[in-house]
Amino acid sequence: MSFTALHPELGRIDATLIDLGQGLEWEGIYRTRPRIRLTCPECGHGVHAKLSPRRRTRYFAHDPGRSPHCHLSVESADHHLLKRVLAEAIRRAGWSAELELPAPDGSWRADVMAISADGEQMAWEAQLSPITDGDIQMRTNRYYDDDIDVCWVSSRDRVPWLCTVPAIAVAPADPPTAAERWMVHDGLTRFDYKCGSWIQVDDVTLPTFVRWVLDRSLTIHPIGRRYRRIRLPGSNAIIRRSVSWSTQRSIDAEAKHEAMRQRQEAAKAAREKRAREAEEHRKQVERERQRQEDERRRVESEKRHREFMIESKRRQAAWEAQRREQERKRQEQERQEELARRERDHREQTAAQQWWEGVSAAQLAELMGHVTALSISEHASRALPRSDEREREYAYGLALYTGRRLFGVVMPCPHSLDRLPNSTRIFVRNAREKACITATGLVNADLVTHFDLPDHEQTSLL
Ligand SMILES: [Zn+2]
């Protein structure tokens, strides 16, 4: 089906126009006898005027035997309906609409060409079948080559090329034949400055949209990189769009928002820079403080070490002095003891000398004779001196042995009795000498034996 046909005399006629665009009545071509030979502008095959089942829509249908390749013959009813609705919207906006208008050189064929009073053209394409981005871009460029704007319109649910070329998605409400029942639901946005984002507009009818586009209230706008998340009205849903129809006011608002955002980002960057600098300064101060603290500790530690070394040396010196003092005292004591011993030895020797002075050799022999006799009577053994020395260890007396056993000591000096071994028997001449011995309290009287010998040598005269 198509809305246009070629009249053999009048040329191009349009079924969507009251006078078919040529001052001709519908009844002049519909079911006339004889039949007027109308042909398809696309393939040249014969067509005939027709009414839809409810007689609402006038169109042309290919005669039997049509070419299977004619675009117009295979276009769907939906496609035709949308074209007709677009034409109606254009005409309401005060522009004329030419359906299925081919380029003079055949490079394009507009579904609906809007033409202003002063001859300006804008193509409206109803695109319902799938098309690649490359193909739709190429077809758009062909219009641009002829300085003609184009808007692609789809009533499909999913329109993948909405951001590839200037385009909108539309949806009809019942009845779909009235243009004002068609609403634009994608491809038109407004900028909400407060939210800082684009919001899809879904309350504009197709005729309103077409009028706004034709009077240049709307332009196709490449959305700023940061604003491509488009909010759907009345929900939190988000879609991504890089291109949209919009008003200059919204475009200005986006630019203003972007400028404001950049100012805020610059301010934020400046704040962060200041914060970083402040932090760096704080760290530097902290590092300096730490360095000073380390230095202080180092100095303190060195000082403590020095003091410790001084104290150690002092203690060492004190200890050395003490040790020397002790050594000196010890030597002094030894010296004193040595003096005392020598003095004692001297006293004892002097005393022993006096003790022995009064004893002549004869008297000693006499005494020895008695002691020997005593040893013989007691042990049947002669007690003999080991030497003639009067030894200190025997208190400067004469030690007598019977064999290897000490028998006793003859005439020990009373001054040195403490040198004698315990229980040593002592032999003296008489009671006087015994008294001298026992008077010291150092010797038990039982151990002292005397022989009542006279103190003085008996003269030969007696
Ligand atoms: Zn055809």
TrEMBL record:
Residues 254-306 are annotated as: Disordered. Residues 75-158 form the Competence protein CoiA nuclease-like domain. This is Competence CoiA family protein. It comes from Actinomadura syzygii. The lineage of its organism: Bacteria, Bacillati, Actinomycetota, Actinomycetes, Streptosporangiales.
